[in-house]
Amino acid sequence: MNRRRFTVSIVLVVAAVIMVLAPAAQAADSIVLGCPLSTAFLYGWTAERGFRLAVDEINAAGGVSVGGEKRPFAVEVIDTRDLEPGVPVSEALLAVEKLILDKKADFILGGPVRSEAALAAMPLLSKYKKVSIVTTGVLTPKYSAQVAANYDKFKYCFRIHGEAKHLVGEMFANFGKLKKKYGFNNLFIIAQDVSHARGAAAVMEKVATKSGWNVTGVEIYPTGATDFSMGLIKAQKSDTEIINIWMDMPESAILLKQWYDMKLAALPFGSTLAAAEQPGFWKATDGKGEFTLCNVVNAGNAPSEATEWTMKFYNAYADKWGVAPEGLGASSSYMAVYVLRDAIERAGSLDPDKIVAELEKTDVMGVYGRLRFDPKSHQVIPATDPKEGAVGSILQWQDGKRVVVYPESIATGEILLPPWMKQ
Amino acid sequence: MDILIYGTINSVALALYALGFAMVYGVSRLPNFAHGALYVLSGFITWSLLNSLGLPYAVAIVLTLLLTGIIGALIYQLILIRIRGMEISEIMASYAIGLAILEGLRWGGFKGMTYTLPSFIEGSTTIAGIVVDYQRLLVVVIGAAVVGLLWLFTHYTRTGLALRGMAQDERAALMLGIDSDLMAVVAMGFGSMLAALAAVVLLPLGNIVVEAGYNVLILAIAVCIIGGLGSWMGSVIAAFLIGFAQILTVVYLGAHYQMVVALLAIIMTLILKPSGLFGRQKELEERV
Amino acid sequence: MTEGMEQRRKERVDRGIKVRTDSLYALLSAGEIAYLALPRLVLILGLLLLPLVVPGMYWQRVITITCIYGLLAVSFDFLAHYVGLVSLGGAFFVGTGGYLAAIANTQMGLSPWLTVPSAALAGGVLCTLLLLPCLPLRGVYFAIISLMYPLFSARVIEALDILGGTDGIMGIDGFPNRIVEQYAPVVLLLLILFGLRRLVTTDFGLVVRGVKDNDQAIRASGINVTYFKAVAVFVSASMGCLGGACLVHIYMWSGISQFALDFSILPIAATVIGGSGTLVGPVLGCLILVPISEMLREFGTLRIVFYALILVAFIIFKSEGLMVWGRRKYHQFERWTRI
Known about the structure:
heterotrimer, A: about 425 residues, alpha/beta, Rossmann fold, 15 helices, 18 strands, B: about 290 residues, two-stranded antiparallel sheet, globular
């Protein structure tokens, strides 16, 4: 009996494997975009949705013309699991190799999503000469620094969303405003113990101290921590007025809820605070998330009128997926496909070196402003005015809505203080 | 004062994580690596009962406890009982079951950070100048109640006494007519219920996410090791040790040493006194 | 039983050829030599030829990774079933070896030819020294403490921000060419596998197995149990470090995820499937598990569910493992006999 059951299960497994191995039929001449993404996580699926939306639009319009021939895009998404704990980065690297070698991807878009994994994938990309545009989650300044330091080796790597340094700058501009308006002077920094967050927290501390802020504390919590009470109490005791949060782990919701329950007299000002980016955040916290501020890195991830394209994208995304753009990765992934299409059409071929040269010449009015890459570091050039460069977007939860409060050129509202903070 | 209050809350939370694991291991010597998965699963069960079926909160909680208990018992009765006593197989099988549950949930759409349970009572109060919300106070009350009830249960009911007998000496228990397989199933059921209880009490503080399963498992193991594998009251005391150690680390050393301190404590405990601070010393079983 | 139905049972009998090949007479006939050599040749040639027959470079890479997991699995099997130390901390060896190779390559500028063996040896020594205090522990206690080692190492590197912190170490040289990269793990795995099979039959192996079965008796015979355990741990750790060092050079990168739980769990799963205590079984298990895991990648997160269920099925219904089963079929035949 046992034996038969065993045989049956083996047969089932083999059948499943054969089903998988049967190659998916694909249009012979399509251009394959390989997307290594951590699909079970916010920054992974927003990117996937952004890609698919852009590719559908482009294909519906006839595809990409390569040297006079129209070719459609095809998307190959692969799950890297790289945002999961306990999974080695080599697993994500194997996924990238699978896309390149097995799926014959012509370009790598998206991830790997975790900064560490993306850094580790750079040598692979140059080994196989695959042009890659990072569109989600990779916030470490080291990525573009590596390109700048070793251009010949890593010139195939581009990044189309803002990085930690820009985020610090954007947030700091807001702190300055708050200081002027309300006389805020005390800043408390809470960060997650991962590469980009720690780096950003350190930069923030330095910048803030230099310009006269009183940094009342820096707490770095290990990924997966579930108790933030002591950090919050420290902030409370030191009369902190702004809590700067650098966390994308889900447990940050515990922090925010406790902030509300304690009626802490400090604004929670987060960056890539994944928990607060999603439209469902309000319902999930029963409104306890009100007044939470959050940097969603690029305009278009929250409703605003940065360019003519912004709301068009925002609504198209909402129509297609039944939910508004949910956070970092949506608008940048969408634009990456368009930027790549333009580069291919200008180059007239898929030759990686030609594409790199054409990508460097990119200058287009996109969803989140004017998109240009720095020719040395291949980092998208940031700005506070969408006419000048890629703009960020900081939102605040106000009465159940995500209201963009920064940069001023695209803002739809002002930063509000919780009632228990009014002076 | 703040250290005392939040240290206690943190400790009780840890104890709640660990009790189910300690109970199953104590009775049937099964390191239940699916513990974290059951914790997360019960969170999503409650959420579904609340939001999809629209049941009242209290009913949903009771149903969740029962359902999770049954699921745990079934896992044991159908799968784990066949490999009883083979430690490595037990660890592998229960870990694999946990993995299947967690990843299955994720595949079933339970991903992202927007799944939450409402607090039992909203609002907060001030104790000695420290603001504490009611939910956190409830955690302490319920944790204390669970420990108390567990003590009464294992000392004054037939089933409880049988479980304790199993835990102390399985052969002697067998001789006294205690059905050891049945008791192991019962223990697994109770252990799962404790995991579910921890989930419904603690999850309203944050959100329900799959990743929590792995963290809960590691925390539960940590507490049980330091308290002594198989010793229930030992785990409660160990939960307080770790809980306060964590809080004190944050206050005096910096939060990022939290995990280092916890892990170092485990390693030191294992090297110096492998059966834990409060485990029964069994020199011959634990070392050469 | 009802009348008329005779009670029967299955009986297993060694094949004649098995009995004949047990001793020196095996050398007398080609048939017997072939009987002995066949399984070994299948394994050796199979592993050597596999990279040539699989479609595409990606699957060749999968085979390389399989061999590295194979090293870890053999290392686990040796320690668990010949020494009696169940180690859940394979990742600790991988990480140590990986970081040592990375440091030797980036700081001292050694070539992969030197870093891989030196990382294996130095890593073996380092791991043995660090594990020395825990060696007296037995059973589940050793299992859990070994599980804590890689977690702890990763957290220490993270908290102290040493060795590249959470970014890891970049800029490591790759293997000089593709053939070396492809075959180094394969050949190393085969050498170590057959070397270990020899080792466990020597006097050393005898003592070590004695430690597993009854350490008190060994100690009573005036033998230093800890010394033998330490040597065995060194052997096992070196293999793990070797795997880690190869991995680092293949991906030209090292980081704290080298201490990830997967490196501890997957080899154990492979051992369970392949057959514990056979040394070859774990390799077989890896050859099944790693490619299956790759094929299932299409299913996204569902992949892990399938994977876990396959594992549970094996543990429950085929707990002896494929190798034990296969060996029995090869050496014995079964027949029904009347009672």
